[in-house]
């Protein structure tokens, strides 16, 4: 059991590879923010993580006012919070006309295009991971607006890249089930990238991924995600995690910035909010399913965090759809 797997299991995910580009220098393309992209490629997703895998050549990427990130073959650059960004190679004021991709993207198809000048070739495969908003409180928490990982640095990553390159090839273009296979590969690529990023975090880093990686408290975090409704106490959680109560309490606060039970309370309310948005379950049933013993206690806790009672939150979020 590991915390990352447990957290991702609790989040509804969608994914796809949506663009296979071959660019000749000089070239440049821009991607709008996730709220604009999601409406086209994954309208059911509340959060969209965008990523681009460089399979040949080189490029640079930049998000917002961040410094440019150099990319070479095997690098995947990720925009975990869906910020608008640019990629390029060489000096060019002429943008790739992304609007011509819209008819295929709106159908959920893989778009393939060539663009640019007569210089060095860069090949890029673009994809996304769509998820619910409460992923921002777990595996997306604390991630920078842009980061890169070289997937060829691990055997698993190299295999996934090879499978993706085969899947987007012309020889596979008419094969039945291709889109479904590419969707699974996109999700697998993102998970592998997140694992590589987590492995490469410096020892002094804190946050959700650092907590998940820690051998002492990562097991506790996984248990909280696997059984959020259980009536956990700190001694119970420490025993189940194979560590002492003191070590668990101190190390968890050091890495996460809050106690295990405070994190659990916050996670329960995120799960409850999802149920209120997406189901017709009664408020009392939602309260029981996330670990509260009474509707009154649940309503008080929910109002402290979301500013409104559960029933009103449901009405307002469903009316906004």
TrEMBL record:
A Pfam family annotated for this chain is Cupin_6
What InterPro entries does the entry give? AraC_lig, Homeodomain-like_sf, HTH-like, HTH_AraC, HTH_AraC-typ_CS, RmlC-like_jellyroll, Tscrpt_reg_AraC-type_HTH
Keyword annotations of the record = DNA-binding, Transcription, Transcription regulation
Domain HTH araC/xylS-type as annotated: residue spans:
218-316
Q: What is this protein called?
A: AraC family transcriptional regulator
